[in-house]
Design a protein that fits this description.
Elements (H helix, E strand, L loop, with lengths): L1 H9 L8 E7 L2 E6 L4 E5 L6 E2 L10 E6 L2 E6 L6 E3 L2 E2 L2 E4 L4 E4 L2 E7 L1
Amino acid sequence: MERDRRHALATLPQLAPGRYLGIEDAGEIVLLPLTADVMHIGRSPAADVVLDDSSVSRRHALLARRGAETVILDDRSLNGLRVNGERVNEAILRNGDLIVLGQVSLRFFDV
């Protein structure tokens, strides 16, 4: 089993440098590149990252670049925003941080 795990890790694609959100979709992790300086996350079709879940507000959160940092901000959502288990209105994101919007979990990656 250890050999299989090492092989699986060795075959993962190398990510290009950048910022990504990881979202589970049908059992697979989908990585969305964060290319804009400000991105809207929510249930609205007008959002940059659309999360089709009733626990997510239409305008739930914002991802913004501040210099070299990436910040997530609650956009007056009903169910709030959690980063690494702590409810926040705003947080600086670090590689591997777990973001929860309503009942949807995302992972932030900074490569």
